[in-house]
Specification:
Low-confidence stretches: none
Largest sheet: 3 strands, antiparallel
Distance between the termini: 86 Å
Number of domains: 1
Number of helices: 3
Radius of gyration: 47 Å
Strand content: 5-15%
Strand order of the largest sheet: 1-2-3
Order of helices and strands: EEEHHH
Shape: rod-shaped
Structural class: mainly alpha
Length: 160
């Protein structure tokens, strides 16, 4: 593809340029604008106005804005890309913490169940010890006490 006329472009920079003439930075004719104006050419000559002025000015402004616009678009794309990368990083971090929180909750639930189990075991042990050591437990003979203490010990060892 060939290169375009060098910028900046200008509208009728030379005194002898005709209506709608647009020249490049090198002074060469880049293009000629046509009009959207329905006014008679003779009227423009009398008024010393360019019937192609509006379109020519629009073309010049568009061409001369191209590099800055392209630069701005590239900058916005870069900023958007960085924002997407940061968003993805933050999402991953949140998911990591959520997984950690779930794991911590599971561990806490397991610990709570273990505490509950040990508390129940402790209550059973204390109750059994009261029975075994109670002077009111006359109905329990020495044999019954002797059988209860080893069973209690087995409960403690087994963790029941």
């Amino acid at each position: 593809m060939s290169e375009h006329t060098p910028t900046p472009w200008s509208l009728r920079p030379r005194t002898w340029d005709d209506w709608g003439w647009i020249r490049g930075a090198d002074g060469e004719l880049a293009c000629i604008a046509r009009r959207h104006d329905l006014k008679d050419d003779d009227k423009h000559r009398i008024d010393k106005t360019d019937p192609y002025q509006a379109n020519a000015a629009f073309i010049v402004e568009a061409v001369n804005s191209y590099d800055a616009l392209k630069h701005d678009i590239e900058r916005h794309i870069r900023i958007a890309s960085e924002a997407v990368t940061e968003r993805d990083r933050l999402r991953e971090q949140v998911e990591h913490y959520e997984r950690g929180r779930k794991n911590t909750q599971i561990e806490m639930d397991e610990r709570e169940a273990e505490v509950e189990r040990l508390s129940n075991q402790l209550v059973r042990c204390e109750t059994a010890l009261k029975i075994v050591s109670s002077e009111d437990a006359g109905f329990l003979g020495q044999t019954a006490r002797a059988a209860l203490v080893p069973a209690l010990s087995d409960d403690l060892i087994k963790g029941e």
